Amino acid sequence: MHTPPHTAREAPTGDAPYDVLVVGGGIIGLVTAWRAAQRGLRTAVADPAPGGGAAQVAAGMLAAVTELHYGEQTLLGLNLASARRYPSFVAELEEASGHDLAFRTCGTLSVALDADDRAHLRELHAFQRRLGLDAQWLTGRECRRLEPMLAPGVRGGLRVDGDHQVDPRRLAAALLTACERAGVTLHRARAERLALDGDRAAGAELAGGTRLAAGQTVLAAGSLSGRLPGVPEEVLPPVRPVKGQVLRLSVPGPYAPFLSRTVRAVVRGGHVYLVPRENGELVVGATTEELGWDTTVTAGGVYELLRDAHELVPGITELPLVETRAGLRPGSPDNAPLLGPTALPGLQLATGHYRNGVLLTPITGDVMAEALTGGELPPDARPFSPRRFTRHPAAVQEHTA
Ligand SMILES: Cc1cc2nc3c(=O)[nH]c(=O)nc-3n(C[C@H](O)[C@H](O)[C@H](O)COP(=O)(O)OP(=O)(O)OC[C@H]3O[C@@H](n4cnc5c(N)ncnc54)[C@H](O)[C@@H]3O)c2cc1C
Fold first, then answer.
1. Is the Cβ atom of 356 under 6 angstroms away from ligand 1?
2. What distance in Å separates the CA atoms of residue 197 and residue 346, rounded to the nearest whole number?
3. pLDDT at residue 5 above 50?
């Protein structure tokens, strides 16, 4: 699908409302705004720092198959559908923005370091096969032939050639440019409160007092989506922050190519992955911590990541450590996103993408454009309606009494 971009437009003045106001300009809010503008909707984004958010920390794995978890088969369908859209999405966004997204179709290798990990990975492989997914079992020797920097102790692994990667920072920057070129108006301010007009959402009040009127408001504020004042309790999304710490190393010329694909493992119950970019960056992630909105990088977090990554690929200790950072995944109760209309007329959600927000960016844009123009989610996206969590007002009163 390629819709010609609209020309940049002036911000509507006075009472002239936007068709769509997106609260939050992370990758999910921006892709929603871009697709809405392409459909001819007058669209604005409110965010004090658009293009920021969790994408500045994320590794950018497009890991529909290697991130498969038991009980998440419905989410798997959405993840695979988004993964299939990635090549054409990247081509379209690169053309629209003039940015290179560093999309690499390099595949992923999940390895086991001991007998327990191996048994666990074997089970996962059987599950993947039952679901018809493409994953190939390799012996330890075959893994090391593919990736010679792997530790000699690697006991086996799963080769998944369809799980790729993209640079999330470039994705965010490209979406911002594409939005501007498509005529999306950016308000660089925080939304302080959802505006209501009778029993409808009607835009938002921004820090500084500006009120933006809009026919439809999309709440896409990442891990803060459940905190916007004015949103009635029964439609407030149950989204929470899940902290992740990540390291960035660089691979100097003599060591390149250090790894040719994403390599991941479960070490002592924790997930560790190494994502090598073509520009020499090597991303090592990530911790998973339930600590509220804390984004402190801790000595313990860095230590654990380096210890586990070193067990997997001993040579990493030679590489320069160039960045340590923590970000917040917007987690939902079932680890799946909340997309589309809520029980409050005029309010839609695009949030709760948890550990797959980068992967789910293409499909989220398409699904939200459908919901904003047609009022309904396309059939494949209906399991992700926010209504699965809508609480009855009476139950909310009882709960909060
Ligand atoms: C460590 C880590 C590793 C990850 N790795 C991967 C990966 O490999 N693959 C993958 O697919 N995903 C990954 N993710 C997940 C992915 O980054 C997120 O799911 C995704 O970035 C969420 O995007 P978002 O736009 O919903 O939220 P955010 O990125 O949190 O953006 C929300 C935006 O809303 C704004 N905002 C908040 N409140 C308000 C308000 N009141 N008014 C206006 N604006 C507001 C903020 O300023 C922010 O810009 C990872 C995340 C982390 C933290």
1. yes
2. 10
3. no
Q: Answer whether 352 contacts ligand 1 (Cβ < 6 A).
A: no
Ligand 1 centroid from CA 241, angstroms: 10
Q: Quote the ligand 1 centre to 351 CA distance (angstroms).
A: 9
Cβ(363) – ligand 1 distance below 6 Å: no
For residue 152, whether the previous peptide bond is cis, meaning omega lies within 30 degrees of 0, is: no
Is 340:363 a contact under the CB 8 Å cutoff? Answer: no
Of ligand 1's listed atoms, the one at least distance from the Cα of 49 is 47
**With bands split at pLDDT 50, 70 and 90, how would you rate the model's confidence at 394?**
low
Is the distance from the beta carbon of residue 47 to the nearest atom of ligand 1 less than 6 Å? Answer: yes
Judge contact between 260 and 147, C-beta under 8 A.
yes
Q: What's the pLDDT at 396?
A: 46
Half-sphere exposure of 294 (CA within 13 A, CB side): 9
Q: Which atom of ligand 1 is nearest to the CA of 245?
A: 1
Q: In angstroms, rounded to a whole number, what is the distance separating the alpha carbons of residues 198 and 194?
A: 12
Strands 240-250 and 281-285: antiparallel
Give the predicted TM-score (pTM) of the model. Answer: 0.94
Q: What is the Cα–Cα distance from 288 to 391, expressed in whole angstroms?
A: 28
Beta carbon of 59 within 6 Å of any ligand 1 atom: yes
pLDDT, tens digit (0-9, with 9 covering 90-100), for 242-280 = 999 999 999 988 778 899 999 999 887 788 999 999 999
Rounded distance, CA 139 to CA 137, Å?
7
Q: What pLDDT, on the 0 to 100 scale, is given for residue 392?
A: 63
Provide mean pLDDT across the span 102-123. Answer: 94
pLDDT of 329 above 50: yes
User: Beta strands of 251-302 (E only): which ranges?
Assistant: 262-267, 270-276, 281-285
Q: How far is the CA of 2 from the centre of ligand 1 (A)?
A: 26
Residue of 22, 190, 224 with the most ligand 1 atoms within 8 Å of its CB, for mutation? 224
**C-alpha 358 – ligand 1 centre gap (Å):** 9
Torsion, Cα 39 45 51 53, to 10 degrees, reads -120
What span, in angstroms and rounded, lies between the C-alpha atoms of 172 and 25? 9
Residue 75 near ligand 1, beta carbon < 6 Å: no
